[in-house]
């Protein structure tokens, strides 16, 4: 009985972690669906967004270090602080600007290239943004405060304690992440179903050429999709940044999103969510039951093995579009 | 004017299908080999060996291996780091278990062991394709590194999990361990690189290579015309992993001398090798060398210029270095998506006409 | 590979060669820093402290014994291959000591420095058994090391529990790498000796910001104490998760690499009461800071503009620089010349005697334990103390005196490890 309670606690927490993974995976799916680009830079985008958010919030001078190295002037801060909401808005604008730049400088020139070339280009982009983020805002650890609560939820603990005699642990941040993810997905779905731009986006995802022939501007759609992906990256950056501080390692969460993508399919938004949940629960349960027998720290690879097992039976992922091959 | 095929007659099919059909190319190749084997070993310094040439040669071997898999057989892999770890740990176990056998043989055996492991992790490629496969190979990457970190047998139960290469010699020359001279290190790696490049070149233009390319261009079509996808894909995984395993074994035993799975053979290594292949040019032997040279030399060069010559603070230089490498990758892809090898081919075409435009 | 590529290569080669700085006439003490990559937040303060101390010596005293100290910095990104590149490029400048601030790089370089005859100094990190000077002639890790740290943590806990840990449970949460695995053997031995139960919980370096399963396990099993051997983002993430599951901070104790400001600030007030070991003080309440201010900071010479002055890792960099400087001084004394070589500095390291009086002279009263080395003992006393984080004052306060490690347990372990190394590599023992 006790074992079962522990296991269910692990499952619940796994689900919550899965939501956090899915937040990162969402950005990948959006871009892949609309442009067929596997955007490796998504993790770095999240880092860059979080760094920019903190920088704006605390009134940091961008490139302060570079300026002082070149001119000898020591500027650290503008001396103001910006309220969180406004800062988030401004950061979202920065991400839109970034999307425009990426489209104009990179994607535009690579239209029609093979997927692996585009993938490679996003890796170049990731390098560039990583260097740029550090150069702009410095490489030290920063804590991110936008007013999200964190820590054990007492309501859940006392409730489960009175029900089962064992208080479950649920992080309040995770609850918030779940709510935010739900809102995000709902609004993304609503956007793509009910707005003109959304429909254009789906048309592009369906067939580039057909979309072009009915007068949809591919370039506009790409900018839009990258902006949305930038915004999703910002949300993911906020959640993960609140969790463990903002620094280089934040960009590595992309690696946790890959098995999620594989499992859910690169082209499906619900797939990203379901994939996230399965990976989250799977890796936590495996670590709980099998981990102690084999020495632990299994989460890193087990997620991939789990996704691999699913793929062997469904090579396009759970919700991916069926791969039809013709000779 | 100088670089042309006029007057370079071939009288047999054998001559016609040789690797370097142009005389000038051929002589250039022999000259490069002569310089590499007969001149450089006498002038090489520790710095040049350890910072530039040895890593260049080792990564070139790894890039060759991945190029066989990705460039010739069309199977994208992100497991190179893990396979290099297999090569490194295999050579370590072999070298410590059978000290009387030459380490050069151990390196080759380590490649063989890696080939077996590679085939095992290559099996899903029969079902899974494209990026799904790329991500699936990450399972190999993370699992293998975890395994070498977790099972003490692999690192002979040392307290920290580090493996350190024992000192070994070949024909009286010390080739592993701290006492190794720069030229010995260089020559061992050069020998392997040249040998394996020759093997790769001849494999890829033979029957095996053509089945790989058929699978790459369209596997269903290839199957219909009688290419067995199982053998084609598995041989590609085996040969590729062999190369990568040898590279891993050399990286550990000749270059670094000590290694730890998660640090030396992490996911970054997989990406690095893939970059080399793509930047250099998919499906090109020369491209593997060019890509490796580019990505090994560029950071060292940038660092020396930014920190050494311009006197910038090291952290600024490191950040700028990342930005420049990233921007250059994007730039190269835009200018020539088929990599440095294609750039080289285009240059050669132009050279044939030079100085007359038509 | 033809003419053009050869020419291009030659051009690159000349550029690279030209770019490599010329040899120096002064004493060269390179700074292996990492201000980028996953561990940048930890590496930057350390590098700053290291730089500033030598800047102080150069500015105030004109160097050591009239010899200017040159501190070329080389960025390693905590990456072993870059570390090797740094070593090879700096070797041309004839450094008198090598101090790579990374256990991975240290392991890589131990055979190389022994062959090249350059002393290596790895205070509080690197290969623990290198303290056995009979085997590791060129490596020094005074004042303390990972195994000492494990033993001191247990000693401290023994004191807390009135000398009895029987039946207690202690969890070791460790970075799943060479560094994190170091203390396991020692703790296993100690658990046999003192009768506590040890649970080992690894955290993978690649995914160390997501430690939910580890902390759910800790929450279920409620160990009496958690010993933390973390590095980089693993530390703030662990402390944050500990706060999340309401694990009492007072019951956690970190190794010195898990006890800096960067580790606790992310968790804010929740990190109050977290304990960590330290082999040196932190903060600016030492007389040396008057000199630093006058000769370095006020002249605008602080490394990187001085954003980390007085932090724990800054102080550690300073400590490392201080011991190195004392070794050079000793070497000058022993060799009777000011322009000492690497081999002479090695002798200086082996004859170190930094007494408490000497520390006071240096303006570092009660900053760190006294250090005395010998031919057999390259590890010093191994002493460290426990400090506690005060989140409201944002300061680390020492709460104990310096502890001696349990040498009865550690010495045999070290001898076994170093003798095994000697056997593997055919090293004859020195100091007979």
Automatic annotation (TrEMBL), chain A:
Listed transmembrane segments: 12-32, 44-65, 85-107, 116-139, 175-195, 216-240, 260-281, 288-313
Gene Ontology MF term list: transmembrane transporter activity
Locations listed in the record: Cell membrane
Its membrane topology: Multi-pass membrane protein
Keyword Transmembrane: yes
Keyword Translocase found: no
Major site of localization recorded for this protein: membrane
GO cellular component, one term: plasma membrane
Keywords: Amino-acid transport, Cell membrane, Membrane, Transmembrane, Transmembrane helix, Transport
An example Gene Ontology biological process: amino acid transport
Family per record: Belongs to the binding-protein-dependent transport system permease family. LivHM subfamily.
PANTHER family: ABC TRANSPORTER PERMEASE PROTEIN (PTHR11795:SF451), BRANCHED-CHAIN AMINO ACID TRANSPORT SYSTEM PERMEASE PROTEIN LIVH (PTHR11795)
Name the record gives this protein: Amino acid/amide ABC transporter membrane protein 1, HAAT family
Annotated organism of origin: Paracoccus solventivorans
From TrEMBL, chain B:
GO molecular function, one term: branched-chain amino acid transmembrane transporter activity
Key words, A-Z: Cell membrane, Membrane, Transmembrane, Transmembrane helix
Membrane-spanning intervals of the chain: 27-49, 56-74, 101-123, 130-148, 236-259, 271-296, 316-335
Protein name, per record: Amino acid/amide ABC transporter membrane protein 2, HAAT family
GO CC terms, sorted: plasma membrane
InterPro entries: ABC_transp_permease, LivM-like
Principal place of residence: membrane
Subcellular location: Cell membrane
Membrane topology: Multi-pass membrane protein
CDD domains (alphabetical): TM_PBP1_LivM_like
PANTHER family, per database record: ABC TRANSPORTER PERMEASE PROTEIN, HIGH-AFFINITY BRANCHED-CHAIN AMINO ACID TRANSPORT SYSTEM PERMEASE
Top-rank taxon, per record: Bacteria
UniProtKB/TrEMBL annotation, chain C:
InterPro entries: Leu-bd, Peripla_BP_I
Coiled coil: none
Keywords, comma-separated and alphabetical: Signal
Highest taxon listed in the record's lineage: Bacteria
Signal peptide (from-to): 1-19
Transmembrane segments: none
Gene3D superfamilies, per the entry: 3.40.50.2300
Recorded family membership: Belongs to the leucine-binding protein family.
Protein name, entry field: Amino acid/amide ABC transporter substrate-binding protein, HAAT family
Species: Paracoccus solventivorans
């Amino acid at each position: 009985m006790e074992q079962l309670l522990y296991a269910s606690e692990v499952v619940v927490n796994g689900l919550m972690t899965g939501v956090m993974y899915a937040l990162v995976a969402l950005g990948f799916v959006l871009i892949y669906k609309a442009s067929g680009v596997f955007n490796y830079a998504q993790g770095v985008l999240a880092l860059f967004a979080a760094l920019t958010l903190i920088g704006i919030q605390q009134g940091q001078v961008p490139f302060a270090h570079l300026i002082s190295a070149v001119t000898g002037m020591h500027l650290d801060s503008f001396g103001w602080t910006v309220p969180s909401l406004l800062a988030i808005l401004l950061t979202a604008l920065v991400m839109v600007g970034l999307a425009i730049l990426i489209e104009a400088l990179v994607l535009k020139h690579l239209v029609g290239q093979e997927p692996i070339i585009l993938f490679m280009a996003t890796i170049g982009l990731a390098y560039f943004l990583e260097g740029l983020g550090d150069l702009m805002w410095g490489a030290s650890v920063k804590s991110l405060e936008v007013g999200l609560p964190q820590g054990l939820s007492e309501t859940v603990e006392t409730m489960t304690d009175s029900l089962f005699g064992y208080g479950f642990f649920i992080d309040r941040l995770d609850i918030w992440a779940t709510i935010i993810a739900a809102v995000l997905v709902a609004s993304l779905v609503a956007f793509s179903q009910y707005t003109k731009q959304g429909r254009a986006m789906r048309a592009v995802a369906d067939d580039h050429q057909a979309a072009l022939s009915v007068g949809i501007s591919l370039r506009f759609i790409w900018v839009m999709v990258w902006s949305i992906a930038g915004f999703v990256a910002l949300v993911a950056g906020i959640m993960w940044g609140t969790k463990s501080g903002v620094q280089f390692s934040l960009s590595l969460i992309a690696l946790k999103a890959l098995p999620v993508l594989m499992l859910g399919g690169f082209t499906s938004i619900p797939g990203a969510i379901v994939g996230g949940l399965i990976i989250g629960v799977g890796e936590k349960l495996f670590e709980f039951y099998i981990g102690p027998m084999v020495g632990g720290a299994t989460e890193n690879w087990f997620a991939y093995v789990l996704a691999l097992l699913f793929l062997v039976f469904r090579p396009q992922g759970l919700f991916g579009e069926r791969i039809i091959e013709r000779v | 004017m100088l670089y042309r095929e006029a007057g370079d007659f071939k009288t047999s099919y054998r001559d016609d299908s040789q690797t370097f059909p142009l005389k000038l190319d051929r002589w250039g190749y022999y000259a490069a080999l002569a310089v590499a084997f007969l001149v450089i070993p006498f002038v090489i310094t520790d710095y040049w060996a350890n910072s530039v040439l040895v890593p260049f040669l080792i990564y070139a071997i790894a890039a060759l291996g991945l190029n066989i898999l990705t460039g010739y057989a069309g199977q994208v892999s992100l497991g190179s780091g893990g396979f290099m770890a297999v090569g490194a740990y295999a050579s370590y176990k072999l070298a410590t278990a059978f000290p009387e056998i030459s380490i050069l043989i151990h390196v080759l055996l380590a490649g063989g062991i890696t080939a077996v492991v590679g085939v095992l992790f290559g099996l899903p490629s029969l079902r899974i394709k494209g990026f799904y496969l790329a991500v699936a190979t990450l399972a190999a990457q993370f699992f293998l590194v975890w395994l070498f970190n977790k099972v003490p047998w692999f690192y002979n139960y040392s307290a920290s999990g580090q493996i350190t290469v024992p000192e070994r010699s070949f024909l009286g020359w010390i080739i592993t361990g701290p006492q190794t001279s720069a030229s010995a290190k260089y020559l061992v790696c050069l020998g392997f690189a040249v040998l394996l490049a020759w093997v790769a070149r001849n494999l890829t233009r033979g029957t095996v290579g053509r089945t790989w390319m058929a699978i790459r261009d369209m596997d269903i079509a290839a199957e219909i015309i009688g290419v067995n996808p199982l053998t084609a894909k598995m041989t590609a995984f085996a040969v590729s992993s062999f190369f990568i395993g040898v590279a891993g074994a050399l990286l550990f035993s000749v270059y670094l001398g000590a290694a730890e799975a998660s640090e030396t053979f992490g996911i970054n290594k997989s990406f690095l090798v893939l970059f080399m292949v793509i930047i250099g040019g998919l499906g090109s032997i020369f491209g593997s060398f060019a890509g490796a040279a580019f990505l090994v030399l560029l950071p060292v060069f940038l660092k020396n210029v930014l920190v050494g010559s311009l006197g910038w603070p090291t952290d600024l230089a490191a950040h700028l270095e990342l930005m420049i490498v990233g921007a250059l990758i994007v730039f190269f892809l835009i200018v020539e998506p088929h990599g440095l090898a294609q750039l080289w081919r285009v240059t050669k075409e132009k050279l044939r006409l030079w100085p007359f435009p038509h | 590979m033809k003419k053009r590529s050869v020419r291009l290569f030659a051009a690159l080669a000349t550029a690279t060669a030209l770019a490599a700085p010329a040899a120096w006439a002064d004493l060269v003490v390179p700074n292996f820093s990492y201000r980028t990559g996953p561990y940048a937040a930890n590496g930057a303060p350390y590098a700053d402290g290291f730089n500033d101390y030598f800047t102080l010596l150069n500015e105030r005293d004109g160097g050591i014994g009239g010899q200017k100290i040159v501190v070329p910095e080389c960025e390693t990104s905590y990456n072993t291959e870059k570390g090797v590149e740094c070593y090879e490029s700096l070797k041309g400048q004839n450094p008198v000591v090598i101090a790579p601030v990374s256990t991975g790089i240290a392991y890589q370089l131990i055979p190389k420095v022994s062959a090249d005859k350059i002393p290596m100094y790895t205070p509080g990190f690197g290969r623990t058994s290198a303290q056995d000077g009979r085997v590791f002639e060129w490596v020094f890790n005074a004042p303390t090391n990972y195994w000492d740290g494990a033993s001191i943590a247990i000693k401290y806990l023994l004191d807390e529990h009135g000398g009895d840990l029987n039946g207690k449970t202690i969890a070791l949460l460790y970075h799943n790498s060479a560094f994190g695995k170091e203390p396991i053997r020692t703790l296993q031995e100690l658990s046999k000796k003192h009768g506590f139960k040890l649970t080992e919980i690894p955290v993978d370096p690649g995914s160390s910001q997501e430690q939910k399963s580890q902390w759910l396990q800790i929450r279920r099993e409620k160990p009496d104490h958690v010993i933390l051997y973390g590095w980089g983002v693993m530390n703030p993430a662990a402390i944050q998760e500990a706060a999340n599951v309401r694990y009492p901070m007072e019951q956690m104790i970190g190794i010195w690499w898990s006890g800096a400001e960067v580790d606790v600030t992310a968790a804010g007030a929740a990190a109050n009461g977290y304990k960590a070991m330290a082999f040196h003080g932190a903060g600016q309440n030492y007389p040396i800071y008057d000199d630093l201010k006058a000769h370095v900071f006020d002249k605008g010479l602080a490394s990187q503009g001085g954003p980390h002055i007085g932090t724990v890792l800054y102080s550690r960099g300073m400590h490392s620089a201080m011991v190195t400087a004392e070794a050079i001084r000793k070497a000058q004394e022993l060799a009777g010349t000011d322009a000492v070589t690497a081999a002479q500095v090695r002798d200086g390291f082996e004859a170190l005697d930094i007494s408490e009086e000497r520390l006071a002279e240096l303006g570092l009263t009660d900053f760190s334990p006294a250090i005395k080395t010998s031919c057999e003992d390259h590890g010093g006393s191994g002493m460290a103390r426990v400090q506690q984080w005060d989140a409201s004052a944002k300061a680390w306060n020492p709460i104990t005196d310096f502890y001696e490690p349990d040498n009865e347990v550690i010495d045999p372990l070290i001898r076994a490890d170093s003798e095994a190394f000697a056997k593997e590599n055919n090293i004859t023992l020195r100091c007979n």
